[in-house]
Design goal:
Helix content: 55-70%
Number of strands: 0
Radius of gyration: 17 Å
Number of helices: 4
Distance between the termini: 48 Å
Largest sheet: none
Number of domains: 2
Shape: flat
Length: 91
């Protein structure tokens, strides 16, 4: 897959990038820069293309828990802040 190929993104992710891009263009950012920023935002919030690929390889239990931990750390900052505030309130 060449760089910049958007085939692995879902329709929802593509729409999200389009809306974000429009917002940047309204603020006066150039077309190329707004597109770059929009896809960077989509990648940050969702973790990249989410379209299903071929059958995944089986993971061991240890690898599954390790990947879950790293996935929690890679979440968007807004989600992290919400989780932290919810933890504080429950204490």
């Amino acid at each position: 897959m060449p760089r910049g190929d958007k085939t692995s993104y879902t329709g929802k992710q593509k729409r999200m990038a389009g809306h974000i891009e429009e917002g940047y263009e309204k603020r006066g950012v150039s077309k190329d820069e707004s597109e770059r920023r929009a896809w960077a935002t989509v990648n940050k919030t969702s973790g990249g293309g989410l379209k299903k690929k071929s059958a995944p390889k089986k993971k061991s239990a240890a690898k599954k828990t390790a990947s879950r931990k790293t996935a929690l750390n890679k979440r968007a900052p807004a989600k992290k802040a919400a989780r932290k505030s919810a933890r504080r309130k429950s204490r």
